[in-house]
Amino acid sequence: MKSAREIFSSLPHDGFGLISCRDLAERRLHDDPPIVLDIRKHEDWVEQRIPGSVHCEWEAVGDYIESGQLPEHGDIVVVCYVGQSSGQVTGILRALGYRAYSLLNGFTEWSESDYPRES
After folding, report:
1. Which residue ranges make up each domain of the chain?
2. Average of pLDDT values for 96-110?
3. Rounded CA gap, 90 and 83, in Å?
4. Which residues pair with 38 in a beta bridge?
């Protein structure tokens, strides 16, 4: 088992692993946009989501990773309602070696700020 020191020293040193809605919107326009992993309830994701996002509820993220569906390379932005659950998942992903970020203030801010959404 890894020690806490080993885990913390292996994490990316880029702030707290947060990304703002504005930064995500800008990064989605680049040639290599981040993967957006939405961990909200399925019915909420179906109703409204960030265009092109993939869905996996919080409780199933471990199975999603183990199945190999989450690419090991590239940036991943985890989205929940307000940023709390996505922060937890982001921490786990970072400990596993993924370049993961939590959407600051979650889908709530994304939708209130009038960024693109699909259903």
Report:
1. 4-112
2. 95
3. 10
4. 55, 79
